[in-house]
Amino acid sequence: MDMNRKIVLGILAILALAAAFVATVPVMATSYVPYYAAKEYKEIKGKIIGPCGEPLANEQILAVIWNVTGNCAMAYFEGTTDDDGEFTYTILQEGSVIPVDTSGSWYNVTILIYKYGKWMLLNWTKDFNATLGGIDWDTLLNGYMNATIYAGHWHSLNFTAMTDLDGDGDFETPLFFEDPENSDKEDIAHFKVYWNESRDEPIWESDANGGSDLAHSSVAKELFNISDAVVEVSEDHECLLVEDVKNVTLYKETYWKLWKNPEETLDVLVGKDLIVLNYTLPVSGKDGK
C-alpha cells in the first residue's frame, strides 16, 4: 500500500488558521465473527465508523463486494445508513446466498459516500492489497461481512481563527471580542468551505464557539468532515466501476462577524485558504472495481 495524505494551508490574510487533522491508522476493525462453520451467508450487514470511532449515521453510501476472480458483483447496497451507521447488502448471486469460498478467489470491496454533491471514497480494499488484485476469502469474511468497517479516507477538520495583535509573527490571540458591558454582544469568527473549482455556494459553514471560554472562543462549533478522494463511477452502480479518482481541493474563507443588532452582523472577510488532501492511488489504471 502506498498512501500519502497532506494538508496544504496557505495563509493569505492576518490570520493563522489551524486545521486539526483527526485520523487513525487501521483500515478495518472486525466487530462480529460467526461462531459456527457456516456453509453459506444469506444476509450480510456492515457498519461504517469515522476517524473518531463515530458511526457514519444517516449518510448516503454505495457499497459493492466484487468477485475479482469470477468478474462479478456478489453483493450491493445503495441507500442511507441507519442511526448506528449500519446497512444491509442485497445479495446478487444465484439464490441470494454467498457460499463459503474454497476455491481461492480474490475479492474487492468499495465503499463510497455521496456528500456535498459528489461521490467520495470511504474505504476500499485496494489500499492494503492492491498488488495481489484483491483480498482473500478470510479477509473478506472477517473484515467486511457482518463487520465494523473503518472509513480510512474520511477525515475530520477542526478550524480555529487566531490573530497576531502585536505583530511579532505569533498568531496567539483568538479572533473574538465580547462587549464588557453586555456579554450578548460578541464578535466571532465564521468559516465557509467551498469546492475549489466552484466557489459560488459553500458546501459547509460554521460559527466559532464564542462565549466565555477564551481558549475555544474562535474554534468552529462543528467539525468539517471530508474524504481525501473524489470518485467518478460508472452509471451502473451494481457493477461498480471506479472510472477516476481525484484529489480533494477546497477553498476556505474566514469571516469576522461583527455584532450590530440582535440577529444582525457585519461579516468581514479576513482570511482565505486553499486546502489540499492528497491521496496516491495504490495501482495505476481505471480498474477500480
Low-confidence stretches: 1-37, 284-289
The appropriate CATH architecture of the domain at 24-154 is Sandwich
Multimeric state of these chains? single chain
Discrete helix count: 2
Strand content: over 45%
Mean pLDDT: 83
Shape descriptor reads elongated
Number of strands: 20
Structure description:
The protein has 2 helices and 20 strands. The protein is mainly beta. It has a domain at 24-154: Sandwich (Protocatechuate 3,4-Dioxygenase, subunit A). Strands 14, 15, 16, 18, 19 and 20 form a 6-stranded antiparallel sheet that branches. 34% of the residues are buried. Mean pLDDT is 83; it is low at 1-37 and 284-289.
Write out key terms for the chains shown.
289 residues; mainly beta; Protocatechuate 3,4-Dioxygenase, subunit A; 6-stranded antiparallel β-sheet; 5-stranded antiparallel β-sheet; disordered C terminus
What's the quick description here?
With 289 residues, this protein is mostly beta strands. It is built from two helices and 20 strands. The radius of gyration is 23 Å and the shape is elongated.
